[in-house]
Write a structure and sequence with these properties.
The protein contains ten helices and seven strands. By secondary structure, it is an alpha+beta fold. The protein starts with a helix and ends with a strand.
């Protein structure tokens, strides 16, 4: 009641009911945001959106304090709106998340920053848009696909983890398999959690550190240099199999062949992927 009186008596409202409602929304959101700011937010959802023309896709990660809040319709709808808006913009990863929220709008034309404040006011938790990434077709013969794990509801493509993949068609055979193969590969990415596309994408310092670890293990073995080189090469192959998508055993393909081999046999090649998940 006191807040209502304060709203009506505000100089910019001047007893106008509609203006008072807007005042309450703005000031209520600000007060709620200030109360929850700084509280730990480790739960949440990851949402994806693939444009109708199939040339660009987005993945957005939004954090909440509790799993209960993340499963609410208000929260999942907001997460979906962030992913939808990202796919409609420039096809590049969004580094300035606050700037994006301040300029991008949801389907109803409301700024995402305002929608975030509305969600905070409704849920009364610290909600944070953690990161947003995009994936764009690099060739006319590419197919984009996504997979969401632990989907919040049938109405949204949001869950506890999600992946996007770009698969290029390299032969006529690939045209028949591309959509299904890409979807299965996205499922694999969520399950296997690769860090890099292929060995060439692994930073030099990461490779050097791994070699250093292998050499440290072999210290005192008195093995000839040529044998050490073979051992290092073998250990690096195992290392790549754990962190590189192309080298991993395909967890969704029959027989679990290497991802690159499985796709090549279907006339396909993976070009890129994006992966996000909730958790510490």
């Amino acid at each position: 009641m006191m807040e209502c009186k304060k709203a009506l008596s505000s100089p910019e409202v001047d007893n106008d009911i509609d203006k008072a409602k807007e005042w309450l929304r703005k000031h209520g959101s600000a007060k709620a945001s200030s109360k929850v700011a700084g509280r730990e937010a480790l739960e949440g959802l990851v949402g994806i959106h693939i444009a109708n023309d199939g040339t660009v896709a987005s993945v957005a990660k939004v954090a909440s304090e509790t799993d209960f809040a993340s499963r609410s319709e208000t929260f999942s709808t907001f997460v979906q709106s962030v992913a939808d808006a990202a796919a409609a913009g420039d096809a590049a990863d969004i580094e300035d998340v606050p700037g994006f929220l301040a300029t991008a709008k949801n389907a109803e034309g409301k700024l995402l920053s305002e929608s975030l404040n509305d969600a905070i006011l409704a849920i009364r938790e610290n909600l944070q848009v953690d990161s947003i990434a995009l994936l764009q077709s690099s060739t006319p013969d590419s197919v984009l696909a996504g997979y969401v794990h632990g989907r919040a509801s049938p109405e949204v493509t949001c869950g506890t983890a999600a992946a996007l993949v770009e698969v290029a068609i390299t032969s006529d055979k690939g045209k028949q398999n591309a959509a299904e193969a890409a979807k299965k590969l996205a499922m694999h990415v969520v399950a296997a959690k690769p860090q890099y596309l292929d060995p060439a994408a692994v930073p030099d310092d990461v490779v050097a550190k791994e070699k250093e670890i292998v050499l440290e293990k072999m210290k005192g073995s008195n093995k000839p240099p040529e044998i050490l080189e073979k051992i290092i090469a073998g250990q690096l192959r195992k290392f790549y199999e754990g962190i590189c998508l192309t080298e991993q055993a395909h967890m969704v393909a029959e027989g679990n062949p290497k991802v690159s081999k499985a796709l090549k046999g279907m006339g396909l090649e993976v070009k890129a992927f994006r992966l996000m998940g909730m958790g510490k």
